[in-house]
Automatic annotation (TrEMBL):
The protein's name: Palmitoyl-protein hydrolase
UniProtKB keywords: Hydrolase, Signal
Signal peptide (UniProt feature, chain positions): 1-15
InterPro entries, per the entry: AB_hydrolase_fold
SUPFAM superfamilies according to UniProt: alpha/beta-Hydrolases
Protein family according to the UniProt entry: Belongs to the palmitoyl-protein thioesterase family.
UniProt-recorded Gene Ontology molecular function terms: thiolester hydrolase activity
GO cellular component, one term: lysosome
KW Lyase (keyword) present: no
Superkingdom assignment: Eukaryota
Amino acid sequence: MIFLVLFFLLPIVLSSSIYRPVVLMHGITSNADAMNDVAKWIRSTYPGIYVISIEIGDGKEDSYLLPLDIQVEKFCQTVRSNENLDQGFNLVGYSQGSIIVRGAVERCSLPVFNLITLSGIHQGTFGIPYLLQLPIELRDLITKYAYETPVQNAVSVANYWRDPEQLIKYDSNCHFLPDINNEHETRNEFYRQNMINLNAFVMTYSDIDEIIMPRQSGLFMGYTNSSLEIETYNNSRQFTEDLIGLRTLKEQGKLFTFTAHVRHQDVTHEPNKDFIMKNIMPFFNNTLSL
Ligand SMILES: *[C@@H]1O[C@H](CO)[C@@H](O)[C@H](O)[C@H]1NC(C)=O
Ligand SMILES: *[C@@H]1O[C@H](CO)[C@@H](O)[C@H](O)[C@H]1NC(C)=O
Ligand SMILES: *[C@@H]1O[C@H](CO)[C@@H](O)[C@H](O)[C@H]1NC(C)=O
């Protein structure tokens, strides 16, 4: 009897497939727990799925005190040392986490299937509201000295502060964003290839986001040179020059954008639950075959 059960079940077990794991990366001044609600929704939609929320160092403080070059390196180390992720995974980054996860894909060639960025900061941020999340003594450092090396090395926000009046300084002195955005004179084809290798790249923003300026940074649009006008698909170098492969991804039908309608949520994502369930959840409906 037992033999019969094994005989029929074993082939099923051996040939079964499991949902691709999901890795979550939180935003600034928060920690891994801030993604618990999202993790819970994914687990209840896809029973048995492996979901892990990553924290870099002591999440809350290190999220703004560690330069993003180091955060990306630590993120890659954590992921590579987790054997559950060896076969590949889907990756989600929220707010500041959006550029940590994209940096990790570009620099570390992680085996990511779908890369999902929620309320991203792809084209940086510039403006006081975002800084209000930081301790008061750090705010002036950013508004006055963002492109000085000691500040670049001390506050994560300096690494993606994109002042439209100082784009030349941004390009030469900002340590992180111009690099992963491939804005330097010498392009990094490796970064671009790693983006093009994705199955899907998903970007979202909220049309009432009160923290990220411009909020369209979530869709990879920043301020144009010397103004507070916002780039469009047609006048952004990212698209016209295909710096990291956005245009190629779009042409291949692998670029997805969604507009949410919710205030910025660094602690709980509950108010955005319907949006996430409807638009984002389908990107986790894929399996690894064992
Ligand atoms: C921005 O415009 C100014 C004035 O036209 C020009 O000198 C500068 O080179 C431009 N900067 C960039 C990064 O294109
Ligand atoms: C902008 O680009 C889109 C393609 O995404 C194209 O359909 C449209 O005609 C362009 N608009 C202008 C004003 O060039
Ligand atoms: C996942 O995809 C399968 C196959 O297309 C579909 O039957 C199933 O309903 C989807 N699951 C969810 C939770 O959407």
